[in-house]
Structures are given as C-alpha cells and as structure tokens.
C-alpha cells in the first residue's frame, strides 16, 4: 500500500472513567497515528464503546489527558469533536428513518454550511449555491458507496446492511480526519461484511482518513487493521499489530478462557 | 439495394464516423448522449461527442492502433465506450464488444480469436479480468479504462486512463491535424464496422463481421418503418455485445440522430426509465412480464374503489384498446369510455411504468404470450415484435404500425427478401447480411446458400397477410405421414400459453395425426379445483379428475380452433391427448436443466402411452419410476384416460 502512516494524531494518556462506583475504563493509554486503521477489540462489557465515547466527547473521563494534534483536551465535547474533524457511526444505526438516503447523508454536511437558517429555509442567494455544492459532495459519496439505486428511498425501508452503509455515508459527508466506527459489521451476513470491509479500506486508502473501529468479528479486525488495542474489564491487555496481539497469552486467555 | 452499389447514393454518409461528423456539422447542439453524473443527467451534444471521438481516435493512433486492428470493448453501456466504437471505426479498425458479465476465462477465446491488441474497459473489475488472462491472450498491448476508481495502485505502463488518452489525442491532433480526417475519408462502406460474437451455445463462438453498409441499411429500414426522428430518446441498457443494442443504440442512433441515455447502474434502470421517459424502448418478454406482475400485485393492495375502476377500465381496454391503437373503426361508446379510461387509468399507469412518451417499444428473443402482448397494447403502448439474428443485424421482420398481430413477427422489413425452404426453414437475403464469420470461411459457406440466402435455422411460414410466423427450430420440424409440416414446439407453445397447462409434448412425425401429452400446472389447476370444491390428494389424483380432463380438453380444442386458420399448420390439430400422471422433471432426465423437453427421451420412456394414443385405446395403465429430491426412488402408477379432442375441418384454399 502506498499510503504513509504519519505521526500521532490522537494520544490518549492514562484515561479512567467511572460511572458512580463502576469503573468502565481504568488507566488506559494508547495512540492513533495519522492514516492508520486502529481497532479496539475486547469481549462484551470490556469498555470499547465507552472508549469511543471518550474520544468523541460524549463521556468525560475523570482522569487522564487527551491530546488531539498535540493540543490537550481534558473535556472534549461532541460539537467540538465534530468541528475538529472527528465523525462516527453508531452501533445502533442513528439515521432519520423517514428521510431519504440523500437527505440523511446531507445532514452530515450541516456543520459545513455557513449560511444562516433563514436563508437556508427560503433557499435563496448564497444558501442556494452552497447547497448545490454540498449536494455534489453528497453525490460523490453516493457514487463511492455504490448506493445510487436507493438515493431517494426512505432509510427505514432499507435492509440493515444498506442502512449501515448509509450511516457510513453520513459520517463521511463530514469529510472527517478521524472516523470512529462502532461495530460497523455487527449483524451483517458474509457478503455485507465483505462489502463493508472494502469500503472501509477504500475510505482509508482514497481519502487518507484515519479510522478507529470497534469490532467483534476477530477475522475482520485482523485482516484490515494496522494496529489493535485489546481491552478487558476496562483494562488494556494488549496493543500492537494483529500478529503480536494474536499471539499474546493474555489476549488468548481473555478471549478463550484460561487453560489454552 | 442501391447502398451496396455505390457509396455515393448515401450522399457520402456511408460509414458511421461520417454520419457522426454530419450530425456534428448540421445539428451541433442537439443532444447525442446522456449520462447521470453525481445524480444529475449530463447531456453531450453531437459537437461534443464528435470532438471527443476525434480526440479518442487520435489517442489510439498515438498508441499505435492501425487500420484493420480489432478493439475489444468491455463494460456496461457508457458514453465513452460508445464513442470508442466510433473512434476505432474512424481509424479503420473494428470494435469488438464483449459481454461484460463473462468471467475472464470466457473472454479468453474471443480475445485470442480476434487477436486483440487494444482493449477499452469500463472499470477496475474488467481490468482485473484482462490482467488475469493477459499472458494467455498474448497479443494484448494496451488497456484503456473509463472509470479510474480503485486504479491508483496500478502502475503497469500499458494501462491508460481514458482522460489521459483524450489528452494524448488532443496533442497528437494538434501536431498532425490531417490524420483523423484522412483516416475517416479512407473508410469504405464495405469495410467491416463491427464484430459481434455469437453466443456459442452450439460449439465455439463465431465472430460475425458486419459492414458499415449492412448496419446502416438495417438501421435505415427500421427508422423508415417507425418514422423515427432526431428528437427521440432511447434508454441503452442491454449488453453492448448484443446485436440489438448495437442496432438500436448505435446504428439507428447515428442514422436517425436520436439521443442515447446510459443508466447510472444496472440497479437503477427502472428509476432511470421513469426519469428519461424514452420514446423508443426495447425489452425481452420477461421484462414486460415482470412489469405486468408488479402492476397486478400493487393493484391487489389498492383500495376498493381504485380496484373497481382499474378492472372496469381494463375490461374496456381489452375490448377496444388494441383496435384504437391500430386505427381500426371503433364505436363511439367504446371510444368515449376508452377516452375516460385513458385519463383515469391508462395514462397514470403508463407514467408509472416510465412509458408515457413511448412511440415504439419492441420485444424479441422469445415467444411472448398473447395476453401479455395485448395488455401493453391495450393501454396505449405501441409494443411490437421484431425478428432477426446477429448475422442479419437483427433486422429481418418488423411489425408495421396498424398491422400488429401477437403471433407473428411481422412483415419482411424494407429491402429484405424472405424465402421458405422446402423443409420450412426461413431463408433471408438483403443488404444486412453478414460479410462472413471471422477467419471461418467454412462456417460462412455453410450458412449462406448458392443464391446468397442466409439460412436462419428457424422454421416458419408466411401467413395470408405475408407476415412471418416463426414456429420452431428447423431441425425439430418433422412431417406428418400426409406430408404436411409438423412443428411440435409451435403447438406446444400454444398449449403452454394457457395458465392451466405447464408442459406439453406433441407427437406426429411420420404419423397420420398429432397426439399430445399434457402436464397440468398444479398451482393454477389446484386453485381452480378448490374454488369448485373438487377434493384431490396430489398431482396424480388431480390430473386424473374428469373435471380437469374436461378443462384441458377445452384448452386443446381452443388450440385446434386456432390452428385451423393457418393452412400451414391446420393439419397439426391435436386429435387425441392424455394428461400425464407425473410432472416431467429434470431429475428424471425428461427435461433439460433449462426446462426444455427432451422429446426423444420422453417418447422412448412412454412408448406404451404413445402406442395407446395411436392404437385407438380409451385408457392405458402405466407405472413409472421417479427419483425424489433426496435421492430415494419410488413408483407412480395410474390408469390414464385418453381423450379425443374435437378437430375442425380444414378448408383448403386454392393456392
């Protein structure tokens, strides 16, 4: 592959997160480099989604530092994250079911629109040319994800695998620098998984987007990731390239139980 | 025809590149091609297309493409791929479109046979296929791709982005401004314009070489019959390697100057159809069938009032719609009702189907059921049939407006001569015949007889109005002992158009009368029986019920009544038949995997039944071994009733 993995773009240092007495994450440190595909894996309840929520500012860790492009942010909030080019997809698809695919992806452009609400509402002047420009970007994404045939279909009528693809499209519409994918392949059949893998690799390859993903399917993770972090009960038990992680005794123990 | 005699008769428009340049000169701003880009239809005018073809041709020349070279074209219908056809032709080369869904190994034979040095393909998928077989092809030197997506990491020097080729061509054109015009001028109407490979279901594929003159005269004939003009639109969605697409989307588009519209992707064809609203449309019968089914299913879900309206006005359409379309006299009352129906039902329905603007729609390739055919005609869609093969530029017969019959393929097209050989085979002659099979003079000699007629391999006859009826493959046609022609497929198809009959096998070769085996359609007949309160336990039981036998007898007699009207097949009326005790099944080798009857095998297996049919018995006991899906074997036995069907006296016309 020709894409060059760059320097550290996101650095998480000694993150701890508690909900009352429950320790969701304890003292976790890892970094994400520019242009890489970074996976977070772990058994159920390991704290993977919490970790993702910390990165994009939904949860605020009680301890630790987050360095984004070298700047410290103890308190990331979702708006700020979005404005700084971090976008995400959700484990439970968060799309507007009654709206068309096109409109759903268009919502991903909202942050990029500069004209005020009134001008947008009457579709006049700068708002109009702006919207046309955004529509062109959205169409490029539709083309990229090969969903032309469902452009005008309400999302609620689509099969699950396609909804996931639309969700990815909405996240891509923000032109993110970091894309957070929360179980992008959960509940998909083999063919849908293959498609999704191809799109993730293509996004990474063509746009150079840094991708952080959570995934259950070990095979998929090992095939497409550059580096993998393994969490278990809120602790980090492994970190490295797929081969290293696969052969780590602690990871094997966590996944397969003791005695192996 | 004059076209053959001298190129001057076409006013210098005797090759496709010349036609293209002529449109660009005379109507530069008229739309030539449309393609959806980023969700919006983008139009290319004739001037733009001509400019791009010029650049593409010069780019090809720069890469070393020479007169006589073959250019492989592989991909979905894309404007650039159509332009590449013109570009190759402009340089005196021959475009060779391949079926885009073929796997690499299937492409290998054609690539080798045609000695391909240059290939233009749609996207990465096709590039990968060619790279896979490149070593085996041996001659392949350059691959040009239209869509650059996913191609970033391909560094092979023989791969070229089409944009790069266009740029290269523009520079070449600046430095050698005469090359393009000179090459176009050298083009002769008798040069091969395209090579289309036959499907090769019987043996290796053969490259059919067609000249500019052949395709231009075929296109002119069609344009003339249907009075097509430059302001039409066609949706180009059928494979570019298929002769029909080459005729409609390339030859006729260049002759008449209408606009071709390329769908966004294979999945969006139905949406694109509605958006474009073509004036000219082609689809095989199964597409029309699925359209009708979807309409009917959606009607079932509609409200009561809508359903009532729909069924009432469909009745009106059935009664008089076809006649109104044909311009035949219709009573004022019916006309008024049809007018009302057009506003309430037919118009909106055509709109939903994307057929509001259709002037002509064609179907071909298989027999179309008369009900299906007349449904579309009755709601005002001018659906017609045509007949032809790759070797005749898909141009032999067309149904002229006002003379459309469901069971014929129409009258011989302008400048086409048809003759029926002694064995019933259809022979055709005209300017649209192939120049020859590529590198296969033996096959060429076999297919064209000493008088210059092409032997189609189809059996048929001309009816009283001079319309051609195709009845069967010539090799399946036999003779009754009276000497009359016996075309089993023709009769079987007629039987199978009834919803209650699933399969039929007719016998009669060297016999004194025609007899038939019938398989009932257990779904349709079962439903029919339920509504009448007839209890049955399974196929064998249902097939033996006297009520069912009477039902099938009615169908057979309707077929007989129909057959008697045609002198050629009037003797083939079905005298006796029986309903088989089991369904013919591929697992028992009675049908092929594509569900065609293996006639000889069936005749051998059920010899005792045939003997009973011809021996005048009233019934016959039979026991047959069957294989179940899980591999078990069992026996089915029954005492089959043999039914005499009413036949009609044949009125011999004095010839």
Describe the SSE topology:
The complex is a heterodimer of chains A (260) and B (655).
Chain A: E1 8-19, E2 22-33, E3 37-41, H1 48-55, E4 63-68, E5 71-72, H2 78-83, E6 86-89, H3 101-107, H4 117-122, H5 126-144, H6 160-172, E7 178-182, H7 190-207, E8 210-214, H8 218-224, E9 227-232, E10 235-240, H9 242-247, H10 249-256
Parallel strand pairs in A: 3-8, 3-9, 6-7, 7-8
Antiparallel strand pairs in A: 1-2, 1-4, 4-5, 9-10
Chain B: H1 2-5, H2 16-26, E1 31-37, E2 40-45, H3 46-63, E3 70-74, H4 79-90, E4 94-98, H5 104-113, E5 118-121, H6 124-137, E6 142-145, E7 159-161, H7 162-175, H8 179-186, E8 192-197, E9 207-211, H9 212-225, E10 233-235, H10 243-256, E11 259-262, H11 269-276, E12 280-282, H12 285-300, H13 304-325, H14 332-352, E13 360-363, H15 370-378, E14 383-387, E15 397-398, E16 411-412, E17 417-420, E18 425-429, E19 436-437, H16 441-447, E20 454-462, E21 468-473, E22 478-479, E23 485-486, H17 488-496, E24 501-507, E25 514-520, H18 522-531, H19 539-544, H20 546-563, E26 574-579, H21 599-605, H22 607-614, E27 619-627, E28 633-641, E29 643-644
Parallel strand pairs in B: 1-11, 3-4, 3-5, 5-6, 6-7, 10-11, 12-13, 13-14, 25-26
Antiparallel strand pairs in B: 1-2, 8-9, 9-19, 14-15, 15-16, 17-18, 18-20, 20-21, 22-23, 24-25, 26-29, 27-28
Helix pairs in contact in B: 2-3, 2-4, 3-4, 3-7, 5-6, 9-10, 13-14, 13-15
Task: Describe it.
The complex is a heterodimer of chains A (260) and B (655). Chain A is an alpha/beta fold and 260 residues long. The model of chain A has no long low-confidence stretch (mean pLDDT 86). Chain A has a 6-stranded mixed β-sheet with strand order 6-7-8-3-9-10, with helices on both faces. A 4-stranded antiparallel β-sheet of chain A has the order 2-1-4-5, with helices on one face. Chain A has helices at 48-55, 78-83, 101-107, 117-122, 126-144, 160-172, 190-207, 218-224, 242-247, 249-256; strands spanning 8-19, 22-33, 37-41, 63-68, 71-72, 86-89, 178-182, 210-214, 227-232, 235-240. Chain A folds into 2 domains: 1-85 and 176-260, P-loop containing nucleotide triphosphate hydrolases (Rossmann fold), CATH 3.40.50; 95-174, no CATH class. In chain A, helix 3 packs parallel to helix 6. Chain B has 655 residues and is of the alpha/beta class. Among the domains of chain B are: 2-212, ANL, N-terminal domain (Rossmann fold), CATH 3.40.50.12780; 477-644, GMP Synthetase, Chain A, domain 3. Helices cover 40% and strands 21% of the residues of chain B. Chain B contains 22 helices and 29 strands. In chain B, a hairpin with a 5-residue loop joins strand 22 (478-479) and strand 23 (485-486). In chain B, helix 2 (16-26) crosses helix 3, helix 3 (46-63) packs across helix 4 and helix 13 (304-325) crosses helix 14 (332-352). The radius of gyration of chain B is 28 Å and the shape is globular. Chain B starts with a helix and ends in an 11-residue tail after the last strand. Residues 1-10 of chain B have low confidence and may be disordered. The interface between A and B is medium-sized, with 18 and 13 residues.
